[in-house]
Design brief:
With 184 residues, the chain is α+β, with helices and mostly antiparallel strands. β5 and β6 form a beta hairpin.
């Protein structure tokens, strides 16, 4: 199968529809299978480890021990070259950058080393910017905060309007006097 083809497999696993795609990684000169589950895309940890030159079992164990990254791991059937579909540890696409950012580079394949170091330097810069408040958080917490900020703005605007309307009523009724009940 060539890098430009996107073969697809669909199957139901533990009540979830899984879709499989061959994804070209041109910078790494390879293709990897990705599985798309209802909660997002996943990649095979052993396949990524092989591409990078890492020992598969060590990487799976390190990820399982990591408090944040272990939440992004699953076991799904994945296509293999020789053995058909086989249950494999996979990592959610959200976790790949963080995993790569924390990975020791001493055993990374030499042709990928510069790319991995650049990615890790960018991760350090992004985290630094986040800590310094130069980047805003994303995700549910950021959306809640944005809505709370917007609601505070709307409340402030409503108080300002209420004050202005009070001044207008005072000016109008101050000159004309209070409306009589019989005038209505």
């Amino acid at each position: 199968m060539g890098a430009s083809e996107r073969a697809e497999i669909e199957l139901t696993y533990q009540g979830q529809l899984l879709r499989y795609y061959r994804v070209p990684f041109l910078a790494w000169n390879c293709e990897l299978w990705a599985v798309v589950a209802p909660d997002g895309g996943y990649y095979s940890i052993p396949a990524l480890s092989t591409v990078l030159g890492k020992i598969k079992q060590t990487q799976v164990r390190r990820l399982q021990e990591h408090r944040i990254l272990r939440k992004l791991l699953r076991q799904f059937p994945m296509p293999t070259e020789k053995r058909g579909m086989r249950e494999t540890w996979v990592i959610h696409e959200r976790g790949i950058g963080f995993w790569f950012g924390t990975m020791q580079t001493d055993t990374i394949r030499s042709e990928l080393l510069d790319t991995m170091i650049a990615l890790q330097e960018a991760a350090v810069d992004a985290l630094d910017s986040l800590i310094r408040g130069q980047l805003r958080l994303t995700g549910p917490d950021a959306r809640v905060q944005a809505l709370e900020d917007e609601l505070a703005h709307v409340r402030s605007y409503a108080r300002m309007l209420e004050t202005r309307i009070g001044h207008i009523e005072g000016a109008v009724f101050g000159e004309l006097g209070e409306p009589d009940e019989g005038d209505e």
